[in-house]
# Entry
Amino acid sequence: TQLLEQSPQFLSIQEGENLTVYCNSSSVFSSLQWYRQEPGEGPVLLVTVVTGGEVKKLKRLTFQFGDARKDSSLHITAAQPGDTGLYLCAATIQDSNYQLIWGAGTKLIIKP
Amino acid sequence: EAQVTQNPRYLITVTGKKLTVTCSQNMNHEYMSWYRQDPGLGLRQIYYSMNVEVTDKGDVPEGYKVSRKEKRNFPLILESPSPNQTSLYFCASWGTEAFFGQGTRLTVV
# Structure
């Protein structure tokens, strides 16, 4: 079973601070996606990164795919209480676009 | 609107009473999957299906069955539920991105 390791598992910070969440693996992936999940709801896609070294921005969120396509990071600038949630990374394996491998998630709490 | 519809949202049942959780998608996706989500364990795949009549076990298939008779539907069947199957269940389908149902919170007493 291929592993996708996320860190930290839990993060609680004050509003206005910056933070970075990491998603790492020893495998090379075709693509990597970041999702955000609210309590009791299904995950919702934030972004997909495909090319090694790719950087995508979504307002205060910056996503990066590692050059070797084995890792990714999510950076939030000036976190807001509305950013609170569970952040999940998921990746498709290189020789099959069917299987989606999931990280265990990072639970993020932003305190006002 | 693209969506995955799961029913029911909440279910409390007794040990051993067969139940089915339905899942339907309107995006013509070939790939569908069932997950359970438990605190600290993330999303664990129960079963997945790559197309009609093609299903395979995920990481935690014991105690579950699925069927894929039509492309849009992928029901999850618990023939004899047990308390350790109490969990939050999600159905998902995808093409280039995964779409999730709203979840089914199942309690087996």
